[in-house]
Amino acid sequence: MSRRRTLDTRKKVALLVSAAAVAGGGAFVMASTSNAAQPQPQRTLSAADSAVCQGLATALKREGVRVGRKRVERLMRQAGLAGISPRRGKGFTRRDPDTDPAPDLVQRDFTADQPNRLRVTDLTMVTTLEGPLWLSAIRDAFSRRVVAWETSARADAELVLTSLEYALASREVAPGELIHHADHGAGYTSVKLTTRLVRAGVQASMGSVGDSFDNVLAENPWMLIKTECIRGRVFATRAEANLTLFEYIDGPCCPIG
Questions:
Q1: Per-residue pLDDT reduced to its tens digit, 62-85
Q2: 14 by DSSP, 3-state: which?
Q3: What is the dihedral of CA 243, 249, 253, 256, to 10 degrees?
Q4: Where does CATH 3.30.420.10 sit in the chain?
């Protein structure tokens, strides 16, 4: 394997470690523990780390890079990478009992054969000393990228509607071809959002109540964002938190941005 190929492999390992939690719903993401340019002491990887390395090796093979689990482990050690466990947060879905939810058109099949066929959306809360900052994001099932996101001091219909408008403006969508999948939160069942979806020719879809697996593709990015971007930080204001989210999600190294 040439030096150039080796460097390409290391870059792919770093990206795949970071994307593992999102793509597969695993409990490990990238955590740079030291400068990759410096020699790293040998350490013993845990059984969980070894399992992640095997999954990354398999993913690399799909990308055309022939590499084994032990090589992935060595590259992780050399790059100063280690697995870290995300923290489980409480759910924020509040269903409006007076609304009729859309049917589940996805049935946990979060795959698409091309972009702009299936998008999933969800929202989460970021704590600041000024009060909660709510983050809404929309993710494309084909590219696994966030196509639009927005923040607000309130988790309401305006927040999810604004993120939808950004998503519609950023990608051309043919009427009748796109499914917009969400949970049963009040913002997603609002008249404003459902009317806008109908006008855009987008099919609304909703999973079951109280089952995170029915919208797992939309919820997994929160694990990555909160682990890599938010954990251990105290934001004085919502503006400070919003700027941090912008630098991370729209940054060049974000695996979902």
A1: 667 777 778 777 777 776 665 555
A2: helix
A3: 170
A4: 118-249
Q: Which residues, in sequence order, are bridge partners of residue 126?
A: 133
Query: pTM value?
Result: 0.66
pLDDT, one tens digit per residue, over 7-39 is 455 555 555 555 454 444 443 444 444 444 444
Look up the CATH architecture of domain 118-249. 2-Layer Sandwich (3.30)
CA angle 153, 157, 163 (to 5 degrees): 80
* Strand, helix or coil for residue 118: strand
Q: Which two tokens stand for residue 117?
A: 């066929």
pLDDT tens digits along 175-207:
999 999 998 887 888 899 999 999 999 999 998
Tokens representing residue 156 in the block: 């309401």
Reported as type and span, the H/E element at residue 204 is strand 203-206
